[in-house]
Amino acid sequence: MSTLGQLVYALAFQVGWFVCITMGNLASILYALVFLICHLSFMAHKHSGKHIGKEILWIIVISCLGLIIETIYFSTGLLYIETQKHLYHRFVLPPLWLICIWVMFSLALRTCLAFLFNKRISTYLICMVFVPINYYAGANLNTQVNINEPFVFSLVLLTLVWLLFWWTLSHVKKSYFEELFNAN
User: Fold this and answer.
1) What are 74-96's pLDDT values in tens digits?
2) Residue of higher predicted confidence among 127 and 81
């Protein structure tokens, strides 16, 4: 993908992140849906529809991993919403707008963030810096989600889960999606 294409995807992801964090479920769903349709249309045109099934599977896998991660965060209380709804006793699903971020993140991983798969140690270092910043900024911009205190402890645990996510994701990508990433 060209540098301009990567910049467009990076900008679209950042705008989408901001929309999701600040505008709630409806705007998030609409933005993520438009982003997703544009991405799938672009990829189908670029590759003559050859990899569209794998592309959709990639999006589903990342979105499901995101749902699991965020459910862990909310169910354990690392992140919380004052008026959150509990399934069973302590099983808490994340807000829908947060899942929309994961859908868009799956697209970014295929495009503007694909470089993160090239150097594992650098990716882990980037993760240790930007994950806590991202969650802290998101919690401060969003009136709904809060980080449990002590902040540092919660952010460290969030980051550790993300490090495990990256390790898992790199193996999933290598085992099942390498052809998709090589098609770019």
Assistant:
1) 989 899 887 666 556 678 889 99
2) 127
Alpha helices in 47-89 (DSSP H): 52-76
- Cβ-in-10-Å burial (0-12, 13-18, 19+) of 102 comes to buried
| Unique residue bearing structure tokens 């006793």 | 89
Q: DSSP label at 85? A: P
For residue 168 the two structure tokens come to: 């898992």
137, 104, 100, 76: which is closest to 10 by C-alpha? 104
pTM to 2 decimal places: 0.93
Distance CA 29, CA 17 (A): 12
Distance CA 50, CA 183 (A): 10
The secondary element (H helix, E strand) that includes residue 79 is strand 79-81
Environment class of 144 (CB within 10 Å of its CB; exposed 0-12, middle 13-18, buried 19+): middle
Are 79 and 146 contacting, i.e. CB atoms less than 8 angstroms apart? yes
Cα dihedral: 184, 45, 55, 37 (round 10): 130
How do residues 132-171 score in pLDDT, each as one tens digit?
Answer: 999 999 999 998 899 999 989 999 999 999 999 999 999 9
∠ CA 45-48-51, nearest 5°, is 100
